[in-house]
Amino acid sequence: MRGWIGLCRRAIGRASALAGLALALAVGLSACDNDPWPAAAAGSNMLYTSMIENTPRHLDPTASYWSNDTAVTYQVYEPLYGYHYLKRPFELVPKTAAAVVQPRYVDKNGKPLPDDAPVDQVAESIYDVPIKHGILFQPHPCFATDAQGHHLYLHLKPGELGERRTPLDFPVQGTRELTAEDFVYALKRQATTRITAPIFSTFSQYVVGLHDYGDLVKQEDAKLQAGTDPSSLDKPFLDFRRWPLAGASAPEKYLLRIRIIGKYPQWKYWMAMTFMAPVPWEADAFYSQPGMAERGLSLDNWPVGTGPFMMTEYRKDRSYTLRRNPNYRGEPYPCHGTAADRAAGLLADCGKRTPFIDGIVSKVEREEVPRRAKFRQGFYDVEVFERNDTGMPYLVEMQDSEQVRQQYLARGFRLKRGSDVNSYFIAFNMLDPTIGQSSDPVTDERHRKLRQAISIAIDWDEYSKIFPNKAGMTAMSPIPPGIFGSREGTLAGVNPITHRVVDGKIVRRPIEDAKRLMVEAGFPNGRDAKTGRPLVLSYDYYAIPTPNRKPEIDWVVRQFAKIDIQLEVRATDNNQFQDKVRKGKYQVFWLGWNADYPDAENFLYLLTTSAGKTKYDGENTSNYANPEFDRLFVQMKSLDDGPEKQALIDKMVTIVRNDAPWTMGFFPYSSAAAQEWVHNFKSAVLIGDKGRYLRLDVPQRVADLKAWNRPVWWPIGLLLAAAVGLLALARRHLRRRERTNARGEVLA
């Protein structure tokens, strides 16, 4: 009897505790929600977004050449030119320059030539670029001076850095006016030996004297570091002001002169990239001081620019915060666009001073599912700031479900689909002894046929059907549609290595063609004809193999399995991938390319010998080398758009198709993802500085977040009802037991 009574009393106690827990949860939840940001975030004028897996690799304008860097670099730095935010086709506009200038041409004797002079007569193209007056750099301690004009923080001794860990920790901040010399310094700095300079190999072909300047800098840096500890992170200041560069000078305070070898029409586009953003010598000197490198104090983490925003918080691989640069001059919002732009409200802010937002907060997201969930809940204003493909999954979901479609339409998600100037592809390391190029003609031909067989086997149309979130147009060449020279989408543009025309339709070659090539390559049924060993290739992917990515990786493995090739998958994060390719330790890899500028040269140069990744630290990740291709490229790059240029492009594309360093891949559809309250949103690969154009409707954000994220009370109610029911049942049994005598009779 006592056991039963004790049991019932314990049941009552548990039920009471359960009820108390339910009430406590209800009270607690009434005072909170599931917003990952601070309580006041929604009501602020800050834009919230995310980045995929890592913080940017390089924020130093000399080193930065990866798309995820642009979310910061193009908001902080200002090159000479930019692109009109709304106009299509893309149009260059001045940023720090006072005008977009045309070059003047001179012959080998320095005599002026007419604008239409034959290419072979042009010895130099000279760009005299006027710089706007009154532009100020952001506040930074490198500019801080005392009353006598002496710099306060450019002569720190070991230990004087103290506990400072960010530039904002210094009590005095300063600024100064931008001058032409800051661009001269930036161009000289492309020859640096201290950090990676991915574009030096390209610039040194065009800027007068830059190639030899690179050799000089190596010699001078060796002298500077003689006798120092090679393992020390502290390096003496490499001051590029000490050595003149023939191809870059400042004849006047606000006049930049750049001398280009021969005729190179694409140079104007390079002046719209952050490689040509100004670098103040003071910043270089500041970050070269003792203890700075150990603290992560460098341009790679703490950039110094003249743009609308500045870095105020940086937590590696976690988050960063950009806030308004108080010294920014407030360039006006554009007033010209298309009729569609006007209808979409993109001209409503015509002439108003930018930026409209107070800053940008970006947080690392390592998984796609929680990132997309936060966007759907409204916690990210733009899902991934620099990406133009994040809207595709939502468009696919809208096609698959009418309920989802109605929900997304009601929430006003901005998901406009279009085309852009970028590509994805699987390619080969042409330095690899198994699959790359060879000096032996017989071996070289075998390897070529192996690459061609793989190119046939990889069915990119199938990829788009299986992964509609990442769908695109199957590529027949390296040049996307919309770029002069591209023949994509036409019968004349069919790649005969991978496709054929049947009854007027373009179809992929059958897998039997690929298997025949495998036999000719010496690998029948995927085995070496001489040794009988299976052909095993390594496949490098530049992102961690999360559950969301695994189906794509498995798909690639299946494509190779069609022709009996085994793949060893080596997926890593992007930083590790970049280190790997610089060392040349890879065979097959997945890569993407976002156009730097709207010209075929920008895509074809990815296949030039001098741009080789492993040998020259360029952007030719396949390390492809073909002298005839290089010869045609030199001719093509000097030409303006026209029939002669088209003919050369056609020849180059034919060479690349036959050599097959790339499988060509696909040109992805473009659709970025932004909330309805983000106004002036028109995303494109070439528009890196969109942060200053965006405007937030903060009251709408606050209201929508509240409506979309109401606390869900029914689980608490269910838990409370269960507790009450259990409590009543336990009490009933206890009372019955208390009224039962020793003979089991229930007393009245």
What this model shows, in words?
Helices cover 32% and strands 14% of the residues. The protein is built from 22 helices and 22 strands. Strands 9-10-11-1-12 form a 5-stranded mixed sheet, with helices on both faces. A hairpin with a 2-residue loop joins β15 and β16. α4 crosses α5, α10 crosses α11 and α19 packs antiparallel against α20. The chain is globular and about 125 Å long. The model has no long low-confidence stretch (mean pLDDT 92).
Number of helices: 22
Strand content range: 5-15%
- What's the average pLDDT? 92
Strand order of the largest sheet: 9-10-11-1-12
Biggest sheet layout: 5 strands, mixed
Looking at this protein, list some descriptive labels.
14% strand, five-stranded antiparallel sheet, five-stranded mixed sheet, 748 residues, alpha+beta
